[in-house]
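thought: fold this chain, then report.
action: predict
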Amino acid sequence: MKNRVSIIISLIISFFVIFFSISCTRQAESTPTSAAPESESELLLGTSCRITIYSDHEEADFTAAFDRIREIEQLMSRSIADSEISLINERAGSGIYTKLSEDTLQVLKEALLIAEVSDGAFDPTIGPLVSAWGIGSDDARIPGAQEITDLLAYVDYREVEIDEASGSVLLPRAGMALDLGAIAKGYAADAVREVLLDRGIGTAIVNLGGNVLTVGTKPDGSRWKIGIQDPLSDRGEYLAIAAMTEHAVVTSGVYERYFIVDDVRYHHILDTSTGYPVESGLLGVSIITEDSFLADALSTAAFSLGIERGMELVDSYEGTEAVFVTTDKELLMSAGMTGGDITLTLQDDSYTFR
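observation:
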């Protein structure tokens, strides 16, 4: 009898051990785990585009993201002969309007808006001067003074004609040319974020040639740490680290595309009033805000305007902060950076805070 009871008790204990083992195993299998970050890169928009995904994903997620960048490049690149921007430029002065995609029209409208609020310091009609200087290409040169004067006559964002009803655009004079290089990457970064979120990717970093956009929060709950480009060094060298939540960081400055003649650095950000590279007392401006689209254009505008007017422009946008780097290697931060959610830590002691 005792043996029978012992056997029954043993069977009951075994049943519960097996039941709880299976239950715990199933629970462990269903508990989500943080995926190891994975990155992929492609050369698009004239730069290295890198996407890093931290959450569970498939190869198709990377494919969709890069396809979206490629689509935007095909629409807006001046170096692609059949792009919409190339077609507009080709038809300048012909009286023929060019029907635009929703993407290109949206970017152009935003570019014209930034041009207006910056009093033309940022101007998407700067194409003729960009071509003449050729900075960043094998044909970089210093145009003659008269050539620059002649080309400046074609730089005026106020002349761009948009037919809202048809979504078409016209440049009224032959010789005018659009260049969206200072805003298209920002738009592309925001577009990639939309693609990733639509595909269920909740945590990622999009880096389009130094235009950095964070998606979601870090898997461990801590803040993202994004480098602020050192304007006197190659891309990827940082003078400071910004700790933040979900934001975009875009830097414009003297570092990215330039050439040197007789020890003078000629950088790619051109002054729309003189036709020469901007001399504003700044080495670089980094904009930190939620949308890379805005940050891209605003960084160029603020750099061109200089410290006082540039900071006024930044402060006029709610939720937008900036770090200005002067030629004396001093850092100035917008008002919201002091005591705010975004913190800045210097990495190079040759720079100081003003």
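thought: worth noting. The two ends are 90 Å apart (CA to CA).
final: tokens above.
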